[in-house]
Design brief:
- It is a single chain.
- The chain contains five helices and 48 strands.
- By secondary structure, the chain is mostly beta strands.
- The chain has two domains: 104 residues, Immunoglobulin-like (Sandwich); 581 residues, Maltoporin, Chain A (Beta Barrel).
- The strands form seven sheets. It has a 22-stranded antiparallel beta barrel. A five-stranded mixed beta sheet has the order 8-9-13-14-12, with no helix packed on it.
- The N terminus and C terminus are likely disordered.
């Protein structure tokens, strides 16, 4: 690929950093300056894992005649395992004695040879010294520990998925529903503070949807509400980073899960990991299936000058079946203790079927039935995605100094076809008008490349510089044709939509972090150049944007950030931060294609949309105390040119173009505009409280006031109002003398979201609850069985109310229905497992 032609150049940069590292260790004298540079140094590592050993005792003895030893000096190894002795006298030999808790004592005799013309000085690098763990046999002792479900910090939250019982056997969508202050909308999109955050997988962009990631493959989810200049500037609503499982324990380890349930739930997943010598090999694979009939409803009043002219009612039933299969594999190669290469390859495929039935009623102003319609749609679609990633990490001798280079390539294809028939009848059952039949077919392909280089360099113990560069390229092509079918002949409709687009974002960033006593601060600046080019293939219509378009608009490319934190005492900290971000319109918001999946509520993009720039301020307070942790946030977000949804009834001209497409003559067309400004003022509170040894609760509460100023022509769309949401997670584990009831775990989660204002109305309140029960059993609790109910009251639905001069509409849709799942998991592993013979294994360990 031409996009990767400069990878060799980046490798040269990497090699240069590694060479600088090696040259720094040599410590040669500068010509003309005489210095005493006598030095003996090395690095301590674990023989099995290769991890650095901190706080080990390193003692240096001189060997005296007669075999006696005399202690010269000693020290404790640094956090990165390094030790170093300077200003040493040149003797024939010295003995190094190393001891550390949990390791066998090591003694090593070192011969010293001074360099010619070195004035008696010497430099001796002992390299990486491997310590053998001391093995002790323990009798009938089991030590268990677990991380809390939610770890809260001053700038981020980390959600450990293993603690989410209700998501077991589900997808990443089920995981997101359980994270405090995060919600999921009808289309599976994540909402954070009523805005759409950027989704990463393992720190990189992805073409996967959350529904395509099994929950059993996720280790944790990182939530960053106001990211610094180090992160992508398009993360205007924050970042949600999904970290997939990959452990590095010695030997062979794995977990297998299988689950079944209703409606039509069938899942299986396998995670394997092999750590041996210089390699860590990992493999995950799985199958995920779910179904169910979801209902929807639309009730509308069409008005003229505020007077109701007629009514329209629509009842919808969707019978959906979703099937996913995935495999992900790769390895870490530990070249040495300071250089690691990681290769990862993943494949995901899926098939969807959707059978939709609609009953439509058309009533006059007296609510008398004029005619009715029946609509049937049968849709089939499939996709295949592939993700390849190369990562190189170099750790310098200085603790915290490192260089990371990443190349991430995503590729995917999709296809779809559907048939829609709409029939209309008088109240007596006779034909009102001939049925409309539409056949759709489409396909698409997506290419996405991200190249990133990050460098971090501590300055002393209280400061750090971070620098980086990132290049992102995305190319998408799609062909979609719609045909009206009449007596076996087909007529191509204006709905046909063949397009292609390319998107590019190049960025560089720098941040500086410092500390003065109990005050920490960080300042940063990111510069991004972005370009979007779209083409409607049939009409040759071009659309898109470029920022900045010229040097006079350079401010459009700059995104500063600043934060300052104060350690109030040992258990509490306060922080205030500011970032400037950007939200670029996505393809569907720009594409003028009209989506007719719902004949009464059409959707269309707006090629004239402009990106919005966001100024975000946030104050955080974190308090840790015995048995609990509290995090409070106050935020303000100012969005000039906010990308906002706008709805209106279709015009007579638009209906004429679509009259053979089985759409309603009074259909609402939903599109997007740039509002003048949108402001959000919010309060967010999260508490983790341990009520008893095995009883925890995590309540959260968010309050937001939103103001929208917007107009279209002579219509004033301005609106404002308060909204709030709350969520509660309750965890309880039985510790009982009874063998049967011991190790039973219960989890209950519930959430409520109040009505939320939008420019032409409001979103309806929604609520739901999930419940799960888990039992650990077998030796060392290697087996687990989990029973989960999602949406216990079958109440989770998404509603919207539009109230305008021309229509009033109250509607709701559902994505999923209440489901029941039983999941069985079994964990296995052996530290003694080896693919190699013992001699070869020993050689690899010695090379570490």
């Amino acid at each position: 690929m031409k996009k990767l032609v400069f990878i060799p150049f980046l490798f040269c940069i990497i090699d240069s950093f590694a060479q600088i590292d090696r040259e720094a260790e040599v410590g040669q004298e500068i010509p003309g300056i005489r210095m005493n540079t006598s030095r003996l140094y090395g690095k301590l590592v674990d023989k099995n894992t290769g991890r650095n050993i901190e706080a080990a005792s390193v003692q240096l003895f001189v060997v005296l005649p007669g075999g006696t030893d005399s202690l010269i000096t000693g020290m404790l190894s640094r956090p990165n395992g390094d030790f170093s002795f300077s200003n040493l006298a040149a003797d024939s030999s010295v003995k190094v004695v190393i001891s550390a808790i949990g390791y066998e004592t090591l003694e090593q005799l070192v011969n010293i040879q001074t360099g010619e013309g070195s004035q008696g000085s010497f430099q001796k690098d002992l390299g990486n010294i491997s310590l053998q763990p001391a093995v002790q046999q323990l009798g009938n002792v089991t030590v268990t520990s677990s991380r809390p479900g939610l770890q809260m910090g001053i700038d981020r939250k980390v959600f450990n998925v293993a603690n989410s019982l209700t998501a077991t056997g589900g997808t990443a969508v089920d995981v997101m529903k359980n994270i405090p202050t995060v919600s999921v909308d009808i289309d599976g999109n994540v909402q954070l503070r009523n805005s759409t955050p950027q989704i990463f997988v393992d720190g990189q962009p992805t073409i996967l949807t959350l529904e395509q990631i099994p929950a059993d493959n996720i280790e944790r989810v990182e939530l960053i509400t106001n990211p610094s200049a180090k992160f992508d500037a398009s993360s205007s609503a924050g970042i949600i980073n999904v970290i997939l499982k990959k452990n590095k324990r010695i030997g062979l380890n794995g977990i297998v899960t299988a689950s079944g349930g209703t409606p039509d739930i069938l899942n299986g997943n396998l995670n394997l990991n092999l750590r041996e010598g210089k390699f860590n090999i990992f493999l995950t694979g799985g199958y995920n299936q779910s179904g169910g009939k979801a209902r929807g409803e639309t009730m509308r009043q069409n008005k003229s000058n505020g007077v109701i002219q007629d009514y329209f009612n629509q009842l919808t039933t969707n019978d959906r079946m979703r099937r996913f299969k995935s495999i992900r594999f790769g390895f870490d190669y530990f070249i040495d203790n300071r250089n690691t290469i990681t290769l990862t390859q993943g494949f995901v495929g899926g098939r969807f079927t959707n059978e939709e039935e609609q009953d439509q009623q058309y009533l006059d102003a007296s609510q008398e039935l004029v005619y009715y319609g029946q609509r049937f749609a049968d849709a089939r679609s499939r996709f295949n995605r592939a993700t390849s990633r190369f990562s190189y990490k170099h750790s310098f001798p200085e603790q915290g100094k490192e260089l990371i280079f990443d190349v991430n390539y995503n590729y995917g294809k999709n296809s779809e076809n559907s048939n829609i028939i709409n029939s209309f009848f008088f109240p007596n059952g006779t034909e009102y008008q001939p049925p409309a039949l539409v056949r759709n077919e489409g396909s698409g392909a997506n290419d996405q490349v991200t190249i990133q280089l990050d460098f971090s360099d501590p300055i002393g113990e209280e400061a750090k510089i971070e620098l980086g560069a990132r290049s992102y390229h995305n190319k998408f092509t799609s062909f979609y044709n719609a045909f009206a079918v009449d007596n076996g002949s087909e007529t191509k409709l204006p709905l046909s939509n063949n397009y292609e687009y390319s998107e590019m974002v190049n960025a560089v960033y720098g941040t500086y972090t410092g500390k003065v006593k109990t005050v920490s601060y960080q300042v940063g600046l990111r510069a991004e150049h972005s370009k979007f080019e779209g083409l409607m293939v049939d009409s040759l219509l071009k659309f898109g944007y470029e920022y900045p378009a010229a040097m006079r608009n350079i401010w459009d490319a700059l995104f500063p950030s600043a934060s300052i934190s104060k350690q109030l005492n040992e258990n509490s900290e306060a922080q205030i931060n500011y970032t400037r971000r950007i939200r670029r319109p996505n393809f569907w918001q720009l594409n003028p294609f009209i989506d007719i999946n719902d004949p009464a509520n059409l959707r269309q993009g707006n090629p004239a949309l402009r990106p919005e720039f966001i100024n975000s301020f946030e104050f955080n307070y974190n308090l840790k105390y015995t048995g609990g942790n509290f995090l409070g946030s106050i935020y303000f977000r100012n969005n000039p040119n906010d990308i906002t949804q706008y709805s209106d009834t279709i015009t007579a001209q638009q209906y004429e173009q679509l009259q053979n497409a089985a759409v309603d003559p009074n259909a609402i067309l939903n599109t997007f505009i740039n509002a003048s400004t949108t402001n959000r003022y919010g309060l967010e509170l999260t508490l983790q409280q341990k009520l008893a040894e095995n009883f925890d609760i995590t309540p959260s509460f968010e309050l937001q006031y939103r103001t929208v100023k917007a107009d279209v022509g002579d219509q004033d769309l301005s609106n404002e109002g308060m909204s709030w949401e709350t969520e509660l997670t309750v965890d309880y584990k039985i510790k009982s003398a009874s063998r049967f009831f011991n190790d039973f775990s219960f989890q209950l989660t519930g959430e409520y979201e109040s009505a939320e204002v939008i420019p032409q109305g409001r979103r309806s309140p929604q609520y739901s609850a999930d419940f799960a029960l888990r039992k650990d059993f077998l030796k060392d609790r290697k087996a687990t069985i989990t029973f989960a109910v999602n949406d216990v009251f079958n109440s989770h639905r998404f509603g919207t109310i539009y109230d305008t001069e021309y229509f009033y509409q109250d509607s709701y849709r559902r994505r999923n229905v209440r489901n029941f799942r039983i999941t069985f998991s079994y964990r296995f592993g052996s530290a003694d497992f080896s693919l190699m013979n013992n001699n070869r294994r020993a050689e690899n360990n010695d090379d570490n």
